[in-house]
Design brief:
Elements lengths: L1 H11 L7 E6 L3 E8 L4 H5 L4 H16 L3 E8 L2
Parallel strand pairs: 2-3
Antiparallel strand pairs: 1-2
């Protein structure tokens, strides 16, 4: 799941080298933390959160195939 989020995020941002993804897996759920440069927060979230919602939808569809629940957290890098 982390690689999927990372590849989509790198395609969206101006600073792809600043994209970091960490993944914490538990029994039936996965927490994916996406860190992007401060200037790219708007590009990843989108107007009214549309891009973030679409990203979550794509990852949720991929996670259903492996019977997992995925939570994506978008964080600004310092």
């Amino acid at each position: 799941m982390g690689e999927l989020v990372k590849s989509i995020a790198k395609a969206l941002v101006d600073n792809p080298e600043a994209v970091e993804v960490t993944e914490k897996e538990e029994s039936q759920s996965v927490l994916v933390q996406l860190k992007v440069h401060a200037d790219d927060m708007g590009k990843v979230i989108g107007k009214q959160g549309r891009i973030a919602k679409a990203l979550r939808t794509v990852v949720k569809a991929a996670a259903t195939k492996v019977n997992k629940h995925v939570v994506i957290e978008i964080v600004q890098q310092n």
